[in-house]
């Protein structure tokens, strides 16, 4: 495990503390979760870029269709 020191504006720090408190999390856990979300988005973007580079448009569209269907299903629940 690594230790990371970051500099943030005071108002951002206070807002993050408030968010962590509202979720019942420590600042460390909140930053860990937010980092996981950011990395998941980055991994997804890289995956789609790789698919696009292979020229397999039908596979990419199929994945997007499945994701869209899941979102619609959750929205109607």
Automatic annotation (TrEMBL):
Pfam families: RHH_1. Residues 4-34 form the Ribbon-helix-helix protein CopG domain. It comes from the Bacteria. GO terms for biological process: regulation of DNA-templated transcription. Coiled coil: none annotated. InterPro entries: CopG, Ribbon_hlx_hlx. This is Helix-turn-helix protein, CopG.
